[in-house]
Amino acid sequence: MSDDKVISFSKRKPKVNSFEVDKFEDFISDLMYEFNIGQASMFEVSRRLNQYMNENNFSPVKFDEIEKELLLRYGLDIDSIQDNIKEHLFTDNEVTGDIGALKKDEREKNRAMLNRLGFYDLYEKNLKENKILELAIKNDVNDIRMLLEEDKVTLISEKKIDFSDDSVNKALAHYRSSREKPIMVTICEATSQYEYH
Known about the structure:
Layout: H1 18-36, H2 42-55, H3 60-73, H4 78-88, H5 104-122, E1 133-138, E2 143-149, E3 152-156, H6 166-178, E4 184-188
Parallel strand pairs: 3-4
Antiparallel strand pairs: 1-2, 2-3
């Protein structure tokens, strides 16, 4: 049997049509606008991107092809960029060429960003985004971080909390009066911290 009759499926790529690319372009433009004005967090962007892929039955390969087509519309050849990144981004060698010289700290920032995105993808189903206010109370008696989240208050201190301190009681009373229902107070005292590498 000759080699010209053998079909190679490894190079076969799913076909994408311009409608799919147009639809994705509209979606990603809206999503990035929300991210840029602070209405969507990095976690929200990752979550909605995964949701979009699922709703539109995109395999990762098909999604990659749509992304490439979209970038080509804007004059970017993603294959060339990926080759440069693979060759230079995660090495300590000096980079030359179109990308320019990437310093070690820039590579570390890029690595950290990729790890952050990976974390969001890995724990997407268990993550919940919250808006939490933090109030610091530091005086001769206490050194407290007060985390305020709707009807929940968490008091955190490395020492035992002295509740005879008026500043703690006033802060709790003022926050309670700003809420429509009673607040639940969690006390984390005599805590310790360590740096994790």
